[in-house]
Amino acid sequence: MAIWRCKNIHQHVNGTAPIGRVIENSAALSRTFSVIDANNAIVPNLFSAESAQRSYLLSGSPAYLQQYHESVDKTRTALSHLRELTSNEESARLTNELEDMLNSRLSSLEMGITMYDKHTLEEYVQLMKDGVGIELMKKVSQNRDAIDTLERH
Predict the structure, then answer these.
(1) In terms of Cα–Cα distance, which of 82, 99, 74, 80 is closest to 35?
(2) How many alpha carbons fall within 13 Å on the CB side of residue 151?
(3) Cβ(98)–Cβ(79) under 8 Å?
(4) In this predicted model, what pLDDT tens digit does every residue of 34-50 receive, in sequence order?
(5) What angle in degrees, to the nearest 10, is found between the helix axes of 89-117 and 17-59?
(6) pTM of the model
(7) Nearest Cα to Cα of residue 53 among 37, 81, 75
(8) What is the CA radius of gyration of the chain?
(9) How many whole angstroms separate alpha carbon 13 and alpha carbon 7?
(10) Cα separation of 126 and 131, whole Å?
């Protein structure tokens, strides 16, 4: 028994097979946390875009419009980073769905800005009352949770 332990310790110290598995596991774990970080960056940036858009619609201040565009860029960058990290079919499918939802939501936000600038905001207010944005955000959050769950298992 002691000889086997010595041999096993010798393998670990000399970097044979077990250390290779440790390195593979470490790389997989690192990728998992990168996916989760990229995934978790999307929703806060989208919330920031929504908040900046709403502030612009209420105030007309160009500073909020600038913040809106910066938040949209950060949202798209986070999605692009998530896509780069996707390594299996289910994650890719969920990421594609997420991209479709984000594009819908961002288009809706952009439409509100366009309507505000053209002084036709009443139509957009009706869309907001219909709850389209709330439903999209629920779906985005559910998708984000599904990606996190998939990556954690």
Answers:
(1) 82
(2) 27
(3) yes
(4) 888 888 899 999 999 99
(5) 20
(6) 0.74
(7) 75
(8) 23
(9) 10
(10) 9
Determine the Cα angle at 48 with ends 74 and 42, to 5°: 45
Residue 139 and residue 101 in contact, taking contact as beta carbons nearer than 8 Å = yes
User: How big is the CA angle at 13 (ends 12 and 14), to the nearest 5 degrees?
Assistant: 95
Q: What are the residues whose beta carbons fall under 8 Å from the beta carbon of 85, sequence distance 6 or more? A: 31, 34, 35, 38
Q: Is the pLDDT of residue 8 over 80?
A: no
* Residue with the larger pLDDT of the pair 100 and 128: 100
Among the residue ranges 41-45, 55-59, 87-91, 96-100, the one predicted with the least confidence is 87-91
Token pair recorded at residue 67: 């913040």
- Helix (H) or strand (E) holding 121, with range, is helix 121-129
Q: What single letter denotes the amino acid at residue 105?
A: R
